[in-house]
Amino acid sequence: xxxxxxxxxxxxxxxxxxxxxxxxxxxxxxxxxxxxxxxxxxxxxxxxxxxxxxxxxxxxxxxxxxxxxxxxxxxxxxxxxxxxxxxxxxxxxxxxxxxxxxxxxxxxxxxxxxxxxxxxxxxxxxxxxxxxxxxxxxxxxxxxxxxxxxxxxxxxxxx
Length: 159
What we know:
Blueprint: H1 2-45, H2 49-54, H3 58-63, H4 66-80, E1 83-94, E2 98-107, E3 110-120, E4 127-135, E5 144-145
Antiparallel strand pairs: 1-2, 2-3, 3-4, 3-5
């Protein structure tokens, strides 16, 4: 009877250790990708769009030419202003090689959702940006205008 109890406890311990190890790896991946997103946002504020583009995966670059990326980032800068802060709304770590994080991000002019997808192709380059979405349409979360961006329009006073 004692032998059976020891076997059950041993099996339970192995299952627990395997579960904990899997969680640690997921947390590591999330931490790695979060750090890369922080670097991406820092480079955005520094207008270093070239560095941001270099951080992207080959797949991203195949569908997004460098000049178009620069244009989109400059347009984002004009419409949203500088990046201030963000918090994670949702994250997904799939098969230990793909991480997607959705943030609620605050910029000078607006607060909105952004989604980053990163993939590790296991080729020694680590996680690279595969996709990037700025939800200006409010599909993930409502877009809100920040207090600092309120504009007062003065109408024609020559009546």
